[in-house]
Amino acid sequence: MRDIPGEAPWGPGATGTATWRGVALADVLAGRDPARGPRARLEPQGLRQQLLGSRATVGSVSPLADDDPLLGKPGGDYNQRKPLDERDFSRRTLLANERTYLAWWRTGLTTLTVALAAARVVPGLSDVSHRWPYTAVGVLFSVLGVVCIAYGEQRRRAVDRAVRQGSFADASPALTLTLTALGCLAGAALVALILLDG
Phi, psi (5° rounding) for residue 41? Predict the structure, then answer.
């Protein structure tokens, strides 16, 4: 490629006209924040909230200037001068548990959709000699989908109870192994049907 007269020459490095005005990457990697002084540390905002919310020792969080935008406006909704309510951590965990519950539902509904397609749609649109293998694969995917939805509710209750008691609820190793085995079996059966009837 030829250089454009009057423009930056082409080379092996990156070319651009932007001017970087942020913190240098070397400062980020070293954990320094030059905008707040030579000894100030960079801290993730979530870490700062956790340390303040858990009433950690003052030395574990570097001090902020009174006009630092991270503190928010005095009297505003977001005021980091005041430590977070310790209950906020439990609330966030419970909301995360709800999102996980919805993920179990999405997985179950998707699996039921695959079951319907395998058992009814594909044999109806294709010229297959035997329909029963597709029905068997569809039933297998249906069982997998129902188990996902049912276990999602059971898991939601267990985690909810554990969070409120300040403990932790492990997922059932037997059930997760069963789900994995069913999923692998259903997938292998689907591959076999595709290869045999293809």
Answer: -100, 150
Residue 129 and residue 122: Cα distance in Å, rounded?
Answer: 12
Residue 57 domain-assigned?
yes
Q: Which residue range forms the structural domain that includes residue 108?
A: 87-197
Nearest to 164 by CA among 90, 55, 76: 90
Is residue 134 within 8 Å of residue 128, measured between CB atoms?
A: yes
pLDDT at res. 55: 42
**Does residue 43 sit in the same domain as residue 91?**
no
Residues 192, 153 share a domain: yes
Same domain for 66 and 110, yes or no, is no
pTM, full prediction: 0.56
What phi and psi, each to the nearest 5 degrees, are found at residue 131? -95, -20
Range in 26-30, 34-38, 181-185 with the lowest mean pLDDT: 34-38
- Could you tell me the CA-to-CA distances from 171 to 78, 146, 185, 187 in Å, in that order? 36, 17, 22, 23
Tokens of 173: 């190793």
Q: Which two tokens stand for residue 198?
A: 């293809």
